[in-house]
Specification:
The chain is an alpha+beta fold and about 220 residues long. The protein folds into two domains: about 120 residues, Roll (Ubiquitin Conjugating Enzyme), CATH 3.10.110.10; about 80 residues, no CATH class. It is built from seven helices and four strands; from the N terminus they run αββββαααααα. It has a four-stranded antiparallel beta sheet. β1 and β2 form a beta hairpin. α5 packs antiparallel against α7. The chain is globular, with a radius of gyration of 20 Å.
């Protein structure tokens, strides 16, 4: 008697992906230790009218769902340059790296990731191909995009305060819930940026250090 192999979290979640995106399939790459999702993604407008179809690949690390999948556009419909948020290899920049890292700490569910990040990315690209502009705002590139994340997503009041807070996190300075927030708002941290600071801590030392170095160099060049 042969026992059925227990399905992984990824395989269970892919059943829902298949229902919503039937042209996608998956396999396990032993060499790279990745789940590989591949196939076609049909894009429609909000009224359901067909727009275009993209050939894509999604590389999902073994640590799913606590990881950031990598999305590759294989159909070469989108120009391969940074202004279109696609690398020469076809790797798509779906969102600010820090934002995706923060999501991965609580788990990125595959169906939601495809629906909210991947599908939206390609729909916006189709819109730009037709209208010469994106439907909404886009993240700035390189260090400017990192700064934009801290100011807009984490709501830090200035680049200088962002630097000070990153330095504080790297030093592992303790910050009590009832202490004054380091953003200088005068509020207790629990009513201000405590949650944002906890989010930063989840990035890990190397990522925080890298962000700090890039922002510091950016400020030095701008002064």
């Amino acid at each position: 008697m042969t026992l059925n192999k227990k399905k992984s979290v990824f395989e269970k979640d892919f059943a829902e992906v298949k229902e919503r995106f039937p042209k996608l399939t998956y396999g396990w790459d032993k060499k790279s230790n990745l789940w590989v999702v591949s196939g076609k993604l049909d894009i429609c407008d909000i009224a359901g009218a067909y727009w275009n179809t993209f050939e894509i690949m999604i590389l999902v690390p073994k640590g799913y769902p606590f990881c950031v999948p990598v999305v590759i556009e294989r159909s070469e419909i989108i120009p391969r340059n940074i202004d279109w948020h696609v690398s020469p290899e076809g790797i798509c920049c779906l969102d600010a790296k820090q934002s995706l890292l923060a999501l991965s700490k609580t788990g990125i569910e595959l169906t939601d990731f495809i629906a909210e990040k991947v599908y939206t990315f390609f729909a916006n690209q189709v819109y730009r191909l037709e209208s010469k502009k994106y439907a909404g705002e886009e993240y700035a590139h390189h260090t400017a995009g990192i700064i934009q994340y801290y100011l807009e997503d984490l709501k830090f009041p200035s680049v200088e305060k962002t630097v000070a807070i990153l330095q504080m996190v790297l030093r592992k300075d303790a910050l009590g819930r009832n202490e004054k927030c380091p953003c200088s708002s005068g509020l207790k941290s629990k009513h201000c940026h405590l949650r944002s600071i906890e989010t930063i801590k989840s990035f890990g030392y190397e990522e925080i250090k890298s962000d700090l170095e890039k922002i510091t160099c950016y400020l030095a060049g701008a002064s």
